[in-house]
Amino acid sequence: MINQNAPIGVFDSGVGGLTVVKEIMHQIPNERIVYFGDTARVPYGSKSKETVTKFSRQIVRFLQMQNVKAIVVACNTASAYALDEIEKETDIPMIGVVKPGAKVASEVTGNGKIGIIGTEGTIASGIYSKYIKELNDKAEVIGRSCPLFVPLVEEGLLQDPVTDEIAKRYLAELIDIDIDTLVLGCTHYPLIRETVGRVMGDKVTLVNPAYETARELKELLEEKNLLNEEPAKLGDDKYRFFVSDASEKFKRFANSIIKYGILSAKTINIEEY
Which tens digits make up the pLDDT trace of 184-203? Predict the structure, then answer.
């Protein structure tokens, strides 16, 4: 029997998954969270399926040791490459960020032209196109890898002329083919949503899988009777953060995103799991 008061495990290759954590905090505020960011081995987007699956297995084992009641794979590349395989290996409910974003994109498009921006791994996997076409077989899905967005976000260049210029170059072909919906297919990208929205213009709907994943997580917990009904008590260790490297840098970045007052991020050797 899984404990309703157990935490939710969330993991990402680095800091991008904090956008999912932020949405979980807002949408299901009673939930406790254990977050792991694989900051020593980031990025996942340029790594092979085998490597990403191996890393994901190690992280899932670590989260299981934290007695989590559900796991959110808050990384598009890991969701694309590893989720189907690793969810068969555990009884813990598990969701990724791809399906929720694909579902909304297929529903909101008007002209059927949907753009996906993400890491090289996510785009190469074709996973968004697969799920969208299952839901809307007439959709035309166009992927564009944007590898420089992740380092720009992690350097804190969220509102910077350099980011604007890179966004214009990456997104030009998507504008030319008249997409009306754009999926932010990397959990870092909601942090530059304003820049992307400005470049794409008002006629393009931006889909944020981080927001949609938190919604789907809430539905999953309700369905399995795992929703935590009680708010945390004073002094409870409600949110815990772990990384594989550079904990101080992570903590500074996390506080700039979540603005919750993250007091610590513990470094662990994920290779031991």
Answer: 999 999 999 999 999 999 99
Q: Which of 123, 166, 167, 186 is catalytic?
A: 186
98-209: which CATH topology? Answer: Rossmann fold (3.40.50)
CATH class, 8-96+211-272 region: alpha beta
Residue bearing the bigger pLDDT, 42 or 112: 112
Annotated active-site residue in 8, 75, 83, 182: 75
Domain ranges within the chain, ordered by starting residue:
8-96+211-272, 98-209
Distance CA 192, CA 197 (A): 9
Calculate Rg over the CA atoms of the chain.
Answer: 18
Catalytic site residue 75? yes
Looking at residue 234, its pLDDT comes to 64
Instruction: Tell me the CB-side half-sphere exposure of residue 174, using CA atoms within 13 A.
Output: 31
